Amino acid sequence: MNIQRWIARREPNWQRLDALLSQVEKKGLKSLGAAEIRELASLYRSVAADLARARTQQLGNILVQNLHLLTNRGYSQIYQGSRRQEWEAVVQFYKWGLPGVVQQTFPYTATAIALFLVGAIIAWWYAWQDPSFLSIVVPEKLIKLVRDEHKLWMGSIVGIEPLASTGIMINNLSVSFGAVAGGITAGVFTTYLMVFNGLSIGAIATLVGQNHLAYPFWAFVFPHGSLELPAIFFAGGAGFLLGRAILFPGKYRRVDALKFYGSQAVQLIFGIVPMLIIAGIIEGFLSPNPNVPEVFKYLVGMGLFIFLVAYCSRKLKTEPHPALSGIPLLIKERERFLRRFKRG
């Protein structure tokens, strides 16, 4: 093989790849057009083959090192650069996309809130009218602890905070995912979960109120409940979105309606998970801590709730970026790029 002739023939490709990579490194992959992306993919494969040939023919350390550096840069921008863009899209989703989808789907979340409140009001009413009603909803052990000993049950968490926090997170996530999955039953199971949770909270709140323990009880609930309850309401809203797709697909085919409303439900799930993780940490470490003043717990709860409302109410200043339509689109975007890459 005539080495000089081979190098002269291949060198324009190396220089062109170097120029494209320099542009990508400065401005990102989005600065390239579709034709340039295909060219980048083709040149990358071509230069990788040249590197293998240079190593086989032992064409010199300097040439091999230069080609190796060029292929490494190409790999980094094509694969790692794509991942970096995905992380940027994730940040943008939580910054603007999640508030947008919360606002778009709020009627479904409001339905979940209404059902929860109906359950709470029913429990409160019947518990005051007939004290025996509490035994239907609240465990007897809990009733005896509050009525007979005038104590709350949160002290059992103290000393086992990491274990309790993990268990709380798992329980809250299972309830939330159950509410979302309940949409497959046309929203019937989601409705049951919202009403049942309302009954439970309403009955327990009445029990502690009757025994003059409301202030410490709500001091325990406020810090984590300011995130936990909204997350459960969002989960209920996601379940009702799926139920809407099944019962009232409207102008869509039922399959298409499930895809459309399911995409919104998935976006809500991406918001629910971090909320429940944070709430679980607070419930495990802050809410039951006897050394933290109760007034401080109230302030933390109100502060978190005000922040959440302000975050979810923020208005989009510009036309939403395509990435804001949901995390699942990140996968599609990556697959689309890789298909271009494979076609060359």
Describe this structure in words.
With 344 residues, the protein is an all-alpha fold. It folds into 2 domains: 3-94 and 330-343; 105-313, no CATH class. The protein has 12 helices and no strands. The chain has helices at 3-27, 34-56, 61-104, 106-129, 134-137, 140-149, 161-181, 188-210, 214-247, 254-285, 294-313, 328-343. α4 crosses α8 and α7 (161-181) runs antiparallel to α10. The longest helix is centred in the first third of the chain and has 44 residues, at 61-104. The chain is elongated. Residues 318-335 have low confidence and may be disordered.
Task: Write a concise keyword list for the protein shown above.
344 residues, mainly alpha, 2 domains, transmembrane, membrane, SpoIIM-like
What is the fold's blueprint, element by element?
Layout: H1 3-27, H2 34-56, H3 61-104, H4 106-129, H5 134-137, H6 140-149, H7 161-181, H8 188-210, H9 214-247, H10 254-285, H11 294-313, H12 328-343
Helix pairs in contact: 1-2, 1-3, 2-3, 2-12, 3-10, 4-8, 4-9, 7-8, 7-9, 7-10, 8-9, 9-10, 9-11
Keywords: Membrane, Transmembrane, Transmembrane helix
Organism: Brasilonema sennae CENA114
Pfam families: SpoIIM
